[in-house]
Design brief:
Number of helices: 4
Bound molecules: zinc ion
Structural class: alpha+beta
InterPro entries: RCHY1_zinc-ribbon, Znf_C3HC4_RING-type, Znf_CHY, Znf_CHY_sf, Znf_CTCHY, Znf_CTCHY_sf, Znf_RING, Znf_RING/FYVE/PHD
Pathway: Protein modification; protein ubiquitination
Number of strands: 15
Number of domains: 3
Pfam families: zf-C3HC4 (PF00097), zf-CHY (PF05495), zinc_ribbon_6 (PF14599)
Subcellular location: Nucleus
Strand order of the largest sheet: 2-1-3-4
Order of helices and strands: HEEHEEEEEEEEEEHHEEE
GO molecular function: ubiquitin protein ligase activity; zinc ion binding
Distance between the termini: 92 Å
Helix content: 10-25%
């Protein structure tokens, strides 16, 4: 009898779902009372609505009813269909009302984040200062920025906190999608789009610029010209000799600087 029940639970596994998830149920959206495969399907559909006021996002925790894809029975949220006895999702989270048959993704619910994540619980830790889960490699190895994941990716503008794509933490502590980060690097951009700090150790590049500057004499008219600069890496302002190739921060030696108006001294 038990063997039969287990077999029943697995019936139709991986056979149903949408482009986002394999699952054996659809959800009734609590906000608009319509049926969708998942909340991403809902959000995609409603974001296309012509009337701006109709656009809205589904609050996953509010889902109350689901429809079994095997027997079409609408019922309260639960893992097993009350009518046909199948698992509507091999992975099921009661808090997020989340179903997924593809357990290879390593889904887990983080109580501190309040949502389900993928990638295996053992590979993540929750940073209380940043207010999000990060991969184990970042433990004691990142600059904490309060709520650093509660913003949109500075490249593609998707909200990062519950994005399905991998995110990376830059040296400054700001975050963006891994793929957006690599795209940015490919375009020879090496500073954070949010705070402009260098995202990697640039000392070799700065050395090369040192050499270039040494080899490039400025015309006589400019040789004594000085400018004020603000350093994007250490935030210091200093006065340096003007040069067409770049301006080096006198404090931290970075060339990631911009010229600013001279400070106004109190009279
Ligand atoms: Zn979907
Ligand atoms: Zn059913
Ligand atoms: Zn969850
Ligand atoms: Zn977390
Ligand atoms: Zn942190
Ligand atoms: Zn992005
Ligand atoms: Zn930054
Ligand atoms: Zn500096």
């Amino acid at each position: 009898m038990e063997g039969f029940a287990n077999e029943r639970l697995g019936f139709g596994k991986m056979g149903y779902g949408c482009k986002h998830y394999r699952r054996r149920c659809e959800i009734r959206a609590p906000c608009c009372n319509e049926i969708f495969s998942c909340r991403h399907c809902h959000n995609e559909a409603t974001s296309m609505l012509s009337n701006l006021l109709d656009r809205h996002e589904l609050v996953r925790q509010d889902v109350k009813q689901v429809i079994c894809s095997v027997c079409d029975t609408e019922q309260p949220v639960a893992q097993v269909c009350t009518n046909c006895g199948i698992n509507m999702g091999e992975y099921f989270c009661e808090i997020c009302k989340f179903y997924d048959d593809d357990t290879e993704k390593g889904q887990f619910h983080c109580d501190d984040c309040g949502i389900c994540r993928v990638g295996g619980r053992e590979k993540f830790f929750h940073c209380n200062k940043c207010g999000s889960c990060y991969s184990i490699g970042l433990r004691d190895n990142h600059l904490c920025v309060e709520n650093s994941m509660r913003h949109h990716c500075p490249i593609c503008y998707e909200y990062l906190f519950d994005s399905l794509k991998d995110t990376t933490v830059m040296k400054c502590g700001h975050t963006m999608h891994c793929e957006c980060y690599h795209e940015m690097r490919k375009r020879d951009k090496y500073c954070c789009p949010i705070c402009s700090r260098s995202v990697i150790d640039m000392s070799r590049t700065w050395k090369r610029i040192d050499e270039e500057i040494e080899a490039t004499l400025m015309p006589e008219d400019y040789q004594n010209k000085k400018v004020w600069i603000l350093c994007n890496d250490c935030n210091d302002t200093t006065e340096v000799y003007f040069h067409i190739i770049g301006h080096k921060c006198s404090h931290c030696k970075s060339y990631n600087t911009c010229t600013i108006a001279p400070p106004v001294l109190p009279q």
